Amino acid sequence: MNNRGQSLALGIMSAIFVFIVGMMFLNFLMPEVATTRIALDCSNAAGITDGTKLVCLAIGTSVIYWIVLVFSLAIGFITARLYGA
What is the pTM of this model? Predict the structure, then answer.
């Protein structure tokens, strides 16, 4: 196997490792998001201010941003090894 093939295999293994660790960290993030949403009373749409609504929106989308970040890092490891070798 040439160096590019070995490098691609290493990139795929690194990407899988980063993806698994990132998804495991999501288990630590989810309870904190739930606690923060309860503390800010995000379910009471009529009783909160506009700034608090914005914070509730940012807190709610942080899980989605985290998943996109981890997926992008995993794809980045693969493409860096593929094109950088």
Answer: 0.74
CB atoms within 10 A of CB 50: 7
pLDDT of residue 35: 92
CA torsion, ordered 33, 73, 54, 28, to nearest 10 deg: 10
Burial 10-44 (b: 16+ CB within 10 A, else e): ebeebbeebbeebeeeeeeeeeebeeeeeeeebee
